[in-house]
Amino acid sequence: MRAFGVKRFKQDQESVVRSLQSREMPERVDHHFLQAERRTSNKHMIDVCSLLAFEESKNQFPFEIPARSFKLLSVLELEQLPGDTQLPNAVGDLVLLHYLGLRRTRLKVLPKSLKNLQRLETLDIRDTFVRELPPGLEVLNMLKHLLLAGSFGNEVVSVETQIEVLNHLLTLAGVKLTEDIAEQLQHLSLLQKLSVGEVRSNHSKSLSKSIDKMEFLGSLTIKCFPGEKIQILSNNPLDCLEKLRVGGQVGNLLDWVNKKRSLKYLYMWDCMLTEDPLSALKHLPNLVVLSLCNAYEGEQIQVDAIG
């Protein structure tokens, strides 16, 4: 997502440079640029389309969004920017915003005004302290990438939004699975990346039914709630699936995985497998990465010429 933001920034670089009165614009916009931007009058900033503020310093830096000065802003990237734990409501006035990157910030809550960003295509809040989305985001029907939490951690984000109406979604990552969410997923048939957490045994049927609808899925992450054992009942061959991550107990895991011939990357942890995974998966022709962490209860793994 950061690379996407930089790409969009380069596309808009001419207007940013003009706004800064021909200042040289570095690819990385940091603390110093934000200070320079604050000293620039509003009339010189009004045509800025992209603002990237990657800040790795641990020093506090209060950042305010003067929305009236950024009426044309379409990309706002604040990754790792230290400061307040709450995004100002004024962000909802940036109605042309397509991309909002808040990864690795100290945010704990998102403002309700986000629902005003009806052109938003990407929202990235991974590695923040946000644990639930504000209500009403189903109006953001142009959303394509909703990145809520990372794929390997235990963090998930609760979503009360009726996500079934977000039918342009290509990425949904880090969502806390409920029975309602599991059922709504079947309406998101265009998904290319799905990551769900806190999956329980009673979600097995609904989740499997939804996966059956996802013919373009290229990346799938399933993280079970501790102590729960689920079943994957999907018959979808998932011909596009290249990356699979599974954390927790899945009853028929190896049999199901062994049919995914397009798999290149397979990560399994805490799966409590009793069958040797190398023997079971040796016929996957495209597998290049197999990562096992506390996944197998046996003491020996057999490696042969075929595997």
From TrEMBL:
Segments crossing the lipid bilayer: none
Entry keyword set: Repeat
Protein's UniProt keywords contain Secreted: no
Pfam families registered for this protein in UniProt: LRR_14
Family annotation (InterPro entries): LRR_dom_sf (IPR032675), LRR_R13L4/SHOC2-like (IPR055414)
Keyword Nucleus annotated: no
Protein name: Disease resistance R13L4/SHOC-2-like LRR domain-containing protein
Species assigned in the record: Rhododendron williamsianum
